[in-house]
Amino acid sequence: MTDIQDYPFAAPAALEPPGEWAELRERCPVAHVRLASGDEALLLTRYDDVKELLSDARFTHHLVAEDAASITANESGGVFASGDGASVRGDAHREWRKLIGKAFTARRVSALQPGIEATARRLVDDMVERGGPADLVAALGFPLPVWVICELLGVPDSDRDRFAYWSDTLLSLTRYTQEEIDAAQAEFAAYMRDHVAARRATPGDDLISELITLVGALDGRVTEEVVLMTAKGLLVAGHETTANMIGKMVAMLLADRSRWERIVADPSLVRTAVEECLRYDANFGFGIPRYISEDVEIGGTTLAKGSTVVCSLSAANRDESAFEDAAGMDLTRSPNPHLIFGAGPYACLGQSLARTELQTVLKVLVERLPTLALAVPAADLRRREGLLVGGLERVPVTW
Q1: C-alpha 251: how far from its chain's center?
Q2: Mean of the per-residue pLDDT values for the chain?
Q3: Where would a tag sit more exposed on the chain, N or C end, judged by fewer CB atoms within 10 A?
Q4: Structurally, what CATH architecture does the domain formed by 5-382 represent?
């Protein structure tokens, strides 16, 4: 397979993987692809290769080098060009992540869980009261993670519709124009700057108040601008991916109703079912890029300095060499060392919070709505297009 293929690949259906994944894993584990920008990059699809590169602390997703590929069709504004702590690089960036990571302690996540469950129950009750069919994404998948991240950051969730638009523009692959992105990001930055200033004047027990106390850390490299960029990054990452995953998780479980019925009959499967949905998700999105700042050998192939490499987490999670019956869904799979949260020093900081949200949502749904069903055939579900993150436009359900 020497042809340069356009990436991301088209999928045959919303919940199905592109056929190219299996073919590339088998015949071309380091593939040349063309991105939405027109730039070329390398694509990794095998589990071991993806895990090895993601675990290498030398390489980050900040694509700021002059010879790095542009990911999106726009000139600027993409999440991989800015990211959290945009002016903190290298060892300092890793130290900054450690400082942020301390905020996602088990104690803090545990303290949020009762509120997460109460909010999930309220949202489900509201959905039932309005009557079906209902869109699970709009009724539950989106508002719950927004409430959680706003609670964590101390931001009013009444602004959730604005957050959604700002997040989408930051994660745009082809959906928005440069003018739309620039305007939205200027609004987002102004909003967060005002919020940071308010928290500096009147600190609370939220994460932003905590981050403000770190200004001046790492020999002065943690500036207010770094705190602002981090707050923006956490707001986007903290709700967008989890909101999308709630809809995808429920759709995957309802697409084959025996899966849902099995969890209803045995709620102890909630934890392993969530992990398997994360592994099985064929609609994760673009993947994680890495800029190769020095030659490195991966899977017997030398990746040259100056290359931009895209790690397809979802393709890696379907690798038969890493998972028995990888193309099948096993709700009892354990251990389940999937890579959907990444690996190594740059793994997702909020993965414990995301797991808590997903497990709580599934627990509440199987208890409250054991008869839940898709209101349309799974083949009629439609992907969200033009964004770096995967998702479903709607998940119509009945009960």
Answers
A1: 17
A2: 91
A3: N
A4: Orthogonal Bundle (1.10)
The amino acid occupying position 273 is: A
pLDDT, position 81: 63
Q: What percent of the chain has pLDDT over 70?
A: 95
CA distance 174 to 35: 11
Domain boundaries, the chain: 5-382
Q: Which long-range contacts (CB under 8 A, 24 or more apart) does 116-125 make?
A: 116/144, 116/148, 116/356, 116/357, 116/360, 117/360, 117/363, 117/364, 119/143, 119/144, 119/147, 119/148, 120/144, 120/360, 120/361, 120/364, 121/364, 121/368, 124/364, 124/365, 124/368, 124/369, 125/368
- Residue 311: which pLDDT band, with cuts at 50, 70 and 90? very high
What is the pairing mode between strands 396-398 and 134-135?
antiparallel
Closest CA to 387 of 175, 165, 184, 146: 175
Q: How far apart are CA 249 and CA 54, in angstroms?
A: 25
Q: Nearest to residue 218, comparing CAs of 227, 208, 209?
A: 227
Question: Is 87's pLDDT higher than 60?
Answer: no
> How far are the Cα atoms of 18, 46, 106, 183, 250 from residue 337, in angstroms, in the given order?
22, 14, 20, 40, 21
